[in-house]
């Protein structure tokens, strides 16, 4: 995949095109000579002499025709190939002998300028500077590409002689969909003229094509889940220390979704979700972020009350960052990569949860955690499909990262045990309504407060824990009979895409 990264840099000083004259030179080369091989044809004249003579006559005729055309119109357009080795543009136009040079920078998630006008026949050179706050590239449909540039880096792109309109974009996942496109308009071109180029440059991510691969079916997802060891949903109690130290190492890797479909994930410590942290009010959390990926990444802990400017900045591959916060309030808090586009980084696996126990948290027999998330599966081996992501149309759903894993591997519980389930909706977009079939909740705690505790007023109990994206809470219940108790996102179309599991209750 193409490199990606983040950091800050001033905007380029000026966007206006500058035109300068240049001279083009033709390369010279000599054609190699080869002694004709004599072959017998299967029918007709079998004479080697007559076949050789015919070939000579044909060559002479072609040369004569070409010479006649040149003499009748010595200014006829020639086909010229120009470029820098990162790609070349073939154009059947008359070169003007002039070069249009344009400086292109980045402002936020947009190229500046995003529209360039170039006379047909001019040679176009773009001085591309990554003046954004993370790693970017610029690729064109004719194959010319800057490669991945860190903040502040500059690359000269020679697009050759312009014969028609040309499209460019940033190929990092999700960046094109956020508006990082560049249109080159060929002025003076005949109607319908356009670049005869490939629609996807090397290293680009055409997510519209990714979507054509289609989602994995629920059966395929379930069958694969049965072959793996599920992520342990058990939530250990918080330890006694008050200074808590963790290292989060970013990796980008390819993992299976089914036996025949893979996806590219971006992870903290090799798993999605990342580590589940737990502590008490007043604890200090020290997190060292190590970026071993190929693009810029960052951290945002909702559990901390800190200025975002430094601790939430994006860092380049090979860099580290220290993030420290004091847990001042109880809750189950989301953490995630905050590098733009955040939805893409979360959708690719860069999320987790921090649980800070309420001071009045009661005891239970079993305690679990479920982090709900959405998958936007594209073509095999690709990252999240940006077109599905922007349309809020996941084609798979998961608790703790893997669709259907707790359906294939039910969670074991005993009758009359008190169970607590912490739930975090990591999103990045959709709501979760957590429900356990065959039970009612005597306790519902949501976003810092008890909605129901020990049964509600007038004997009322709960049936769902409703959470929007980035919200969290917990429920408590006690199954009294043996059996199989499904738990689901009661937005049932989402449950049917993988956000479901089973508590297997035995005596």
Could you characterize what this model shows?
With 507 residues, this protein is mainly beta. It folds into 2 domains: 77-205, Cupredoxins -  blue copper proteins (Immunoglobulin-like, Sandwich); 218-506, Immunoglobulin-like, CATH 2.60.40.420. It is 12% helix and 35% strand. The chain is built from 8 helices and 30 strands. The chain has a 6-stranded mixed beta sheet with strand order 21-20-23-28-25-26. Strands 1, 4, 5, 7 and 9 form a 5-stranded mixed beta sheet that branches. It has a 5-stranded mixed beta sheet with strand order 22-30-29-24-27. A hairpin with a 2-residue loop joins β25 and β26. The longest helix has 25 residues, at 48-72. The protein is elongated, with a radius of gyration of 31 Å. It starts with 17 loop residues before the first strand and ends with a strand. Residues 1-91 and 191-214 have low confidence and may be disordered.
Descriptive terms for the model:
507 residues, mainly beta, Immunoglobulin-like, 2 domains, 6-stranded mixed β-sheet, 5-stranded mixed β-sheet, 30 strands, 12% helix, disordered N terminus
How do you describe this structure in short?
This protein is mainly beta and 507 residues long.
């Amino acid at each position: 995949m193409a490199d990606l990264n983040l950091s800050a840099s001033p905007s380029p000083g000026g966007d206006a095109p500058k035109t300068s004259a240049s001279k083009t030179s033709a390369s010279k080369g000599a054609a190699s000579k080869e002694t004709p091989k004599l072959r017998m044809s299967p029918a007709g004249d079998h004479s080697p002499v007559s076949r050789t003579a015919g070939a000579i006559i044909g060559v002479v005729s072609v040369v004569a025709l070409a010479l006649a055309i040149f003499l009748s119109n010595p200014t006829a357009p020639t086909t010229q190939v120009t470029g820098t080795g990162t790609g070349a543009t073939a154009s059947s136009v008359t070169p003007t002998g002039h070069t249009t040079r344009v400086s292109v920078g980045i402002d936020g998630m947009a190229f500046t300028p995003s529209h360039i006008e170039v006379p047909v026949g001019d040679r176009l050179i773009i001085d591309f500077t990554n003046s954004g706050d993370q790693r970017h590239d610029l690729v064109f449909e004719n194959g010319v590409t800057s490669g991945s540039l860190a903040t502040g880096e500059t690359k000269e792109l020679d697009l050759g002689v312009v014969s028609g309109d040309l499209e460019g974009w940033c190929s990092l996942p999700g960046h094109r969909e956020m508006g990082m496109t560049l249109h080159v308009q060929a002025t003076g071109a005949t109607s319908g003229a356009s670049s005869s180029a490939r629609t996807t440059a090397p290293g680009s991510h055409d997510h519209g094509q990714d979507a054509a691969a289609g989602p994995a079916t629920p059966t395929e997802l379930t069958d694969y889940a049965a072959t793996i060891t599920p992520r342990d949903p058990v939530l250990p109690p918080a330890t006694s220390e008050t200074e808590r130290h963790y290292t989060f190492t970013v990796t980008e890797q390819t993992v299976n979704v089914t036996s025949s479909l893979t996806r590219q994930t971006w992870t903290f410590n090799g798993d999605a979700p990342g580590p589940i942290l737990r502590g008490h009010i007043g604890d200090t959390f020290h997190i060292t972020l190590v970026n071993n990926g190929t693009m810029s990444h960052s951290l945002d802990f909702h559990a901390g009350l800190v200025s975002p400017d430094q601790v939430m900045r994006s860092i380049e591959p090979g860099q580290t960052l220290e993030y420290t916060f004091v847990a001042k309030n109880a809750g189950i808090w989301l953490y995630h990569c905050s590098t733009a586009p955040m939805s893409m980084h979360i959708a690719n696996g860069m999320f987790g949860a921090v649980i800070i126990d309420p001071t009045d948290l009661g005891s239970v027999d079993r305690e679990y955690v479920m982090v709900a998330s959405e998958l936007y599966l594209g073509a095999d081996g690709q990252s999240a499909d940006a077109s599905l992501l922007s349309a809020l149309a996941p084609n798979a759903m998961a608790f703790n990262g893997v669709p259907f894993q707790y359906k294939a591997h039910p969670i074991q519980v005993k009758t009359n045990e008190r169970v607590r389930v912490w739930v975090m909706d990591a999103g990045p977009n959709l709501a979760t309504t957590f429900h356990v079939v065959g039970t009612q909740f005597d306790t519902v705690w949501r976003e810092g407060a008890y909605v129901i505790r020990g049964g509600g007023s007038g004997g009322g109990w709960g049936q769902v824990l409703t959470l929007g994206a980035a919200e969290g809470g917990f429920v408590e219940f006690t199954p009294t009979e043996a059996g199989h108790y499904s738990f689901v996102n009661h937005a049932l179309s989402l449950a049917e895409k993988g956000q479901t599991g089973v508590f297997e209750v035995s005596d």
